[in-house]
Design goal:
The protein is of the alpha/beta class. The chain folds into 4 domains: 266 residues, Glycoside hydrolase, family 3, N-terminal domain (TIM Barrel, Alpha-Beta Barrel); 230 residues, Rossmann fold, CATH 3.40.50; 113 residues, Immunoglobulins (Immunoglobulin-like), CATH 2.60.40; 70 residues, no CATH class. The protein contains 23 helices and 27 strands. The strands form 7 sheets. A 6-stranded mixed β-sheet has the order 9-14-13-12-10-11, with helices on both faces. The structure holds beta-D-glucopyranose. The site of beta-D-glucopyranose has 8 residues, from loops. This is Thermostable beta-glucosidase B. Keywords: Carbohydrate metabolism, Glycosidase, Hydrolase. Its EC number is 3.2.1.21.
């Protein structure tokens, strides 16, 4: 890979003090579909931003928003669904760097990605572009990718901010989500990337969040993004996401894309002249655009031409690390030498390697799995049958019969199943998670004649696997990019030992999934009714059986885990240590996962949440200590009443696991919580007052004095009734009703003033 020195990179500041209001306003919208405007006389250039995320989609001619129309050939790496499954941050960094190199060669200042939206429902048409149902996996993997790209001087665009978890009605729909899931699930991944990697840009999404367009939401774009997380870059709109340009600018949206033909620039100028928009707001956004552009101007470009072979090799390596071995009964895989293989299914010749929409790359080449398997196994041992068509054309019975005959003649049948391209795409969602019936029928027929059948899946998001118990070996191949064919051959034949694990649960039925009753919403609103319980958090809480759990993935070797130990360090982070041993007979990689829980929590919390992970590479028989860090901040929940993060104290369980349902060693750690003293009001319940360090003892004493007066009342209560508990929800402001003059309104107010003064 090319070495890049960007230490002396470009102008770090850009002044807009000498620009006219018109010039400043003009900087804040695009010149064309992919280019920003410059101001020539001030030396501010026009720069290009283009898709993303898993390859460069740079169009040569005029804009063709969602198409692939004539974009320069570029390496199509596995989309996030694949890369995420590697759980390998070093690999994500290398992919990011390669994306940066390709962008730099093509003079692209910002590549539009990565996408870190949470896979709320398996139905979302764009799940293939996102990493996970879990915010830690999403955030950690995306941060590594961003750092990789930006190490080349090319910027990234973290998207789609925020709560954009479906395609249905995406330009209008309001994602109605409560504060805790918003913070703990939907924003957490974005926060991680912003805080750890400072992407040059963040792209706001099309949708509304709790009724407000993301493009004009000051809460999201300014308070959360800049004030809380310290974002220093530029906020760009998704293409066409601006509803009201002046409100958007005021809310914190710096750059409208694509071009508005100057119409909305004039609206900004008018608003400033009319006094309804402060010119300093325009200055700030114009300066950010100018900074992005001048920084790019001063960044050394990577010299071309692109090393197509090296990037293809990287794409193959990544694809191999993206394939999840879901099942491998009897060690059917890797394929043993001298066994004949029938490759069955339309995907053999028509690989599905990326998803549809704005992320479609024009690949530099495409591997053929049939050719790659033949190279390894020997041409005479490999044969092929189509089995079915992807568009439903042709004689299904005849195609099936031909494939079944071939399966019967060969030692092993490898059946390639998956979703046709049209089944999932940007712009619309799926309606079910089933594979086409023609494919399932074919598989059943093959299984009748050959028990040594392997299924290889191609799909951008999970599909139901009704055959999971009947098939010996299953490879989840997701969408693997242009080198997917080679990578599948590498895994089938054992040249690559699979190490990927699921970043999304494979449910038994769509009906089991968390958002089933709340997706995709109606009347312009989608209610995130499952709250915090997204993905495995839901299946675990409801004790729902799944086909394969979050975090699951096998290897051709096996791993043993020692006893985990956890301790709190000086910085408050929790350090987890465990010895992992490769107990099999070949080298392999294991993704070690750490989940925490707090059974004594005061608030609703999932039983187990992923907080850290690490990849360890071990030779056969080798042992190594793996050290993982759970950040204290990641233990926090969002405290709704005080609008801030709070780490609750207590004994946390720490599960070290091979998957969310394969816990290998559990321990506990005592965490000291944040001090949280809620201000007391007349509305505060007696339980809250009792718990208060100042007011508690006073009121308890007063209540004890009252006890004798209440004896008569207490005597009619059944024995054992806890009066304090019974009265726990009684507001202190109304205690006078019971306590009489001893705690009348005046005394209560005095008490509250004293408590709040002391607690402040
Ligand atoms: C997509 C973005 C993409 C942009 C530019 C939008 O429709 O949502 O992800 O980057 O178009 O193609």
């Amino acid at each position: 890979m090319t070495d890049i020195d960007i230490t002396n990179q470009g102008a770090a500041t850009a002044s807009v003090a000498d620009l006219t209001l018109e010039e400043k306003a003009s900087l804040t919208s695009g010149a064309s579909f992919w280019w920003t405007k410059g101001v020539e006389r001030a030396g501010i250039p026009s720069v290009m931003l283009t898709d993303g995320p898993h390859g460069l989609r740079k169009q040569r001619g005029s804009a063709d928003h969602l198409g692939i129309g004539d974009s320069v050939p570029a390496t199509c790496f596995p989309p996030a669904v694949g890369l995420g499954s590697s759980w390998d941050t070093a690999l994500a960094h290398r992919v990011g760097e390669a994306l940066g190199v390709e962008s730099s060669i093509e003079d692209v200042a910002v590549i539009l990605g990565p996408g870190v939206n949470i896979k709320r429902s398996p139905l979302c048409g764009r799940n293939f572009e996102y990493f996970s149902e879990d915010p830690i996996v999403s955030g950690v993997m995306a941060a590594a990718l961003v750092r990789g790209t930006q190490s080349t001087g090319v910027g990234t665009s973290l998207k789609h901010f925020a709560a954009n978890n479906q395609e249905h009605d995406r330009m209008r729909s309001s994602s109605d989500v409560d504060p805790r899931p918003l913070r703990e699930i939907y924003l957490r991944g974005f926060q991680r990337v912003v805080e750890d990697a400072q992407p040059y840009t963040v792209m706001c999404s099309y949708n509304r969040v709790n009724g407000v367009f993301a493009s004009e939401d000051p809460f999201l774009l300014t308070r959360v993004l800049r004030d809380e997380w310290g974002f220093e870059g530029l906020v760009v709109s998704d293409w066409g996401a601006v509803n009201d340009r002046v409100s958007a600018l005021a809310a914190g949206l710096d750059l409208e894309m694509p071009s508005s033909g100057g119409a909305t620039d004039a609206q900004i100028v008018d608003a400033v002249r009319a006094g309804s928009l402060d010119e300093s707001v325009v200055d700030a956004s114009a300066a950010r655009v100018a900074h992005l552009a001048t920084r790019w101007q001063g960044t050394p470009r990577v010299a071309g031409p692109l090393d197509v072979d090296a990037h293809h090799a990287l794409a193959r390596e990544v694809a191999g690390r993206s394939i999840v071995l879901l099942k491998n009964d009897g060690g059917l895989l890797p394929l043993r030498a001298e066994r004949s293989v029938a490759l069955i299914g339309a995907f053999v010749d028509q690989p599905r390697y990326q998803g549809a929409g704005s992320s479609m790359i024009n690949p530099t080449r495409i591997d053929s799995v049939a050719r790659e398997v033949a190279i390894k196994v020997g041409e005479d041992l490999v044969s092929q049958a189509q089995g079915f068509t992807l568009d439903g054309s042709g004689d299904a019975a005849a195609l099936r019969a031909e494939a079944v005959a071939l399966a019967a003649e060969n030692d092993v049948a490898v059946v390639f199943l998956g979703l046709p391209a049209a089944a999932e795409s940007e712009g619309y969602d799926r309606e079910h998670i089933d594979l086409p019936a023609v494919q399932l029928e074919l598989l059943d027929a093959v299984l009748e004649v050959n028990p040594d059948t392997v299924v290889v899946l191609s799909n951008g998001s999970v599909v139901a696997l009704p055959f999971a118990d009947d098939v010996s070996a299953i490879l989840e191949g997701w969408l693997l990019g242009q080198a997917g064919g080679g990578a599948i051959a590498d895994v089938l034949c054992g040249d690559v030992n699979p190490s990927a694990k699921l970043t999304e649960t494979i449910p038994v039925r769509l009906e089991d999934s968390p958002a089933f009753l709340n997706f995709p919403g109606e009347d312009g609103h989608v209610r995130y009714g499952e709250g915090l319980f997204v993905g495995y958090r839901w299946y675990d809480a409801r004790k729902i059986e799944v086909t394969f759990p979050f975090g699951h993935g096998l290897s051709y070797t096996t791993f043993g885990y020692g006893d985990a130990a956890a301790s709190v360090g000086a910085d408050g982070d929790v350090e987890v240590r465990v010895i992992v041993t490769n107990t099999g007979d070949r080298a392999g990689r294991e993704v070690v996962q750490v989940y925490t829980g707090l059974a004594s929590a005061d608030v609703q919390r999932p039983e187990r949440e992923l907080k850290a992970f690490a990849l360890v590479e071990l030779e056969a028989g080798e042992s190594r200590e793996v050290v993982l860090t759970v950040r204290r901040a990641d233990l926090a929940y969002w405290h709704v009443r005080t609008d801030r993060w709070v780490v609750e104290g207590g004994e946390y369980t720490v599960d070290v696991a091979a998957s969310s349902r394969d816990l290998r060693s559990s321990t506990t750690v005592e965490v000291v919580g944040d001090t949280l003293v809620l201000p007391l009001t007349r509305e505060s319940s007696l339980a809250e007052v009792f718990a208060h360090p100042v007011a508690g003892p006073i009121v308890q004493q007063a209540m004890a004095q009252m006890a004798s007066a209440m004896e008569g009342a207490a005597s009619i209560m059944p024995e054992g009734v806890d009066m304090a508990k019974m009265m726990g929800s009684f507001p202190i402001g109304r205690i006078g009703m019971i306590a009489g003059d001893s705690l009348g309104p005046e005394q209560v107010d005095q008490l509250l003033a004293m408590a709040n003064g002391a607690g402040a």
